[in-house]
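Appendix B, Record 12. Input sequence as logged:
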Amino acid sequence: MTEYVENSPRFSKQELQCKHTGICKMSKLFLDRLEALREEYGKPIRISSGFRDFTHPVEAKKASKSGYHTQGRACDLLVGYDGYRLLELAIKHGFTGLGCNFRGPVESRFLHVDDRDDPPAVWSY
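Logged structural output:
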């Protein structure tokens, strides 16, 4: 059974909660993995999207099933110029879903990380 939490030592509820509903229900195992990544990275990591409720506009648009954000098992991390380094660390720390958007304005570049049970996947936006 999945244990859910609202925050962790380095990530607050405000950072992780659904931007649409304010609900925050993150998988403890996922956050433990994210904490380990942050510890090794050695610098703050900003989250652009954490938990998403099923009613969040991005999730509501999905035709098939909602994504890992709705399970509290995904975050989008703002990467700036450190996208490649964070991607390396995410792989090292066992994240199995990795979506990269490393183009465009530096302040909007992000890395999606999740801990999917499905076969590992890497994609670009």
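The first strand starts at residue 4 and ends at 5.
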